[in-house]
Each structure stands twice: as structure tokens, then as C-alpha cells.
Amino acid sequence: MEISKHVISCPIELVVSLIRKKWVIQIIRDLFFGKTRFHEFKQGKPGLSNKVLSNCLKDMEKNGLIHRIVDKCDKKNVKYFLTDKGKSLNKVLYEIAMIGVDGESYSDKIKDDVKETFRDTLL
Asked: Does residue 56 contact residue 21 with C-beta atoms inside 8 Å?
């Protein structure tokens, strides 16, 4: 199958094109774990600037992965949520997490804790 630069004809390539930008996977993970605000997405990511995060959130919204809700009384109060399309990545993220935890030299206790946390949150 030949893939044009302008038309993505492979469904896998289409999904990868939505999540390959730096920080997207981490933001989606954060949303699954209950973070909803701009400053929360920056926690634990010292290399993530406000400008890059803002652009990333705009792209994710444009691509239908998230939606934003602005408080009518306080326009600075903005929250982000996964759309159904974004939520559908739960099993993919779970499998990625399992590959990551099994591939590392974590203790069995840590592996079990991580697996349980991700299973409870993503499945």
C-alpha cells in the first residue's frame, strides 16, 4: 500500500498522526488520571513551556481528542476533558504501559502496583 503525503489511508497511521506530537500521550494519560487544568498538565514536565502546551491542547481539540469548557463567570477558569474519541485510546495506553512496565527492572511489587493502577484507570 502506497501512502500519499497528503492522504493517510492506513488507520494505524491516522491514529499515530494524532498522538505522535510530543506531550500528547502524557496529556491524554493525565486526563485519564483526573487532571483537567492547564497548570496540572505542566506538573512533572519541566521541559513543557506554556506556549507548547497551549499549541498542543489546541491541536488535540482540533483533532477531536479533547474538548475545553470555559466557566461563564470566570473566563480564566478553563477545564479540558477527553472526548469519546480520546477516551477510546484507553486500551492502547494500557497496553503501552504494560509493555513499559514489563520491559523494565521494577520489583514485582512495583510492577503489580503500576499494573493495578493503570488497569483501574484505563480499563
From this structure: yes
